[in-house]
Design brief:
The protein has 370 residues and is of the alpha/beta class. The chain has 2 domains: 7-28 and 268-367, Alpha-Beta Complex (Aspartate Aminotransferase, domain 1); 43-261, Aspartate Aminotransferase, domain 2 (3-Layer(aba) Sandwich), CATH 3.40.640. The chain is built from 12 helices and 14 strands. The strands form 4 sheets. The chain has a 7-stranded mixed β-sheet, sandwiched between helices. Strands 10-14-13 form a 3-stranded antiparallel β-sheet, with no helix packed on it. A two-stranded parallel ribbon has the order 1-12. Helix 4 packs parallel to helix 5 (108-116) and helix 10 runs parallel beside helix 12. The longest helix is centred in the C-terminal third of the chain and has 25 residues, at 263-287. The radius of gyration is 20 Å and the shape is globular.
């Protein structure tokens, strides 16, 4: 495999240094949790090799209250969703195999198949179609050579969603083909209006991926998971996990288990704050005249763009935004899109930081107009 560093990682705020950014609107997750706020005593934890599949209690918590047909053996704990995506791609794709992936998308969903040498077909999600999945276009892209279809919902970076009716229609198309559906549902618990079922509960040809990083603000413990009812796939993914890192960190998994066991104590406050921040962004979008957007339906990100009629030097825009207004967003090239668009993360900053960052965005456009 030929690895290439992704712009989204090279230019990430943690690589640039958080001290250089005052108003960080580039993050795709909720505010990072402080360990002391979890009030965990782990003094008796044995630092051993853990269960290769993952902490049994954590796996049970992941499916607790979900579809009754999901079992603990359908869940494989991974080192964040990123490793789950890597394991799925490297297990199911070889050089020359065909992948259909919605675009724009989180870079790993594209770059790992590229490194493998897979043939990639893009399903365009555009501003003009409301960043929606065109089911008929998807159907036409799938051929007998298609091994994997990759979708994300709520979508990163736009925050748009697929309806349950459309999801089931997509699954019917998948079941009639030779492909599997990779459904990245990391923001599922952050849906605003409706919450989809775990996609993997709907078919054995669906693999769901999620994590604690984005919605719950726990990216530092590197806990994610994949879910599939397909026993052969589950065995294949376990083999991949064992060959890459044997098992997960028992420290990380114990923290995750205890957090998930008490998530109803933590999550209501997170969702309330997130919705308040969303309303701040929504009100700002309605009050300014230089950006437009497709309003998100879930998650903590959206993908505004500088209005087409406004002539602006985009390089100057990002330079001024950071140097003069100390604000950082995710430029469009992170997603192989025009830099007139950018990912705006509203979950990570405080509400006051968010307001100041939004002011900076508006002022930076005005200062960089041609």
């Amino acid at each position: 495999m030929k690895y290439v560093r992704m712009p989204i990682e090279i230019e990430s705020p943690e690589q640039m240094g958080y001290s250089t950014i005052k108003y960080n609107l580039s993050e795709s997750s909720y505010t990072d949790t402080i360990f002391k706020d979890l009030n965990l005593n782990m003094n008796e934890l044995v630092i051993c090799y853990g269960d290769h599949v993952g902490h049994p209690g954590l796996r049970q918590e992941i499916i607790k209250g979900e579809a009754s047909n999901l079992k603990i053996e359908d869940v494989l704990v991974t080192a964040g969703a990123a490793s789950a995506l890597f394991m799925i791609s490297t297990s199911l794709l070889e050089a020359g195999d065909e992948l259909v992936v919605a675009k724009p998308n989180y870079a790993t969903n594209i770059e790992t198949p590229k490194a493998i040498g897979a043939s990639i077909k893009y399903l365009p999600m555009t501003f003009e179609n409301g960043y929606q999945v065109d089911i008929e276009a998807l159907k036409n892209l799938i051929t007998p050579k298609t091994k994997l279809v990759s979708l994300t919902c709520p979508h990163n970076p736009t925050g748009t969603m697929i309806s349950e009716t459309d999801l089931k229609e997509i699954i019917k198309i998948i079941e009639a083909s030779n492909a599997y559906l990779l459904f990245d549902e990391t923001y599922r618990d952050m849906s605003f209006k409706f919450k989809l079922p775990i996609a993997a509960s709907l078919s054995e040809r669906v693999i769901s991926v999620s994590s604690l990083s984005k919605t719950y603000g726990l990216p530092g413990i590197r806990i994610g998971w994949l879910i599939t009812q397909n026993k052969k796939l589950q065995e294949l993914f376990l083999a991949a996990k064992e060959q890459i890192f044997i098992c997960g960190s028992v420290v990380d998994e114990e923290i995750a288990y205890r957090y998930m066991a008490r998530r109803n104590d933590y999550f209501p406050a997170i969702k309330k704050d997130m919705l308040e921040k969303f309303e701040i962004v929504k009100a700002w979008m309605g009050s300014q005249k230089v950006f437009d957007w497709i309003e998100p339906s879930g998650g903590v990100v959206c993908f505004p763009r500088i209005k087409p009629e406004i002539k602006v030097d985009t390089k100057k825009f990002y330079e001024i935004l950071l140097s003069e207004f100390h604000t950082y967003v995710g430029p469009g090239h992170w997603f192989e899109e025009s830099d007139r668009s950018f990912r705006l993360g509203f979950g990570w900053p405080s509400q006051s930081e968010l307001r100041e960052g939004l002011k900076g965005l508006e002022n930076a456009v005005k200062a960089s107009q041609i």
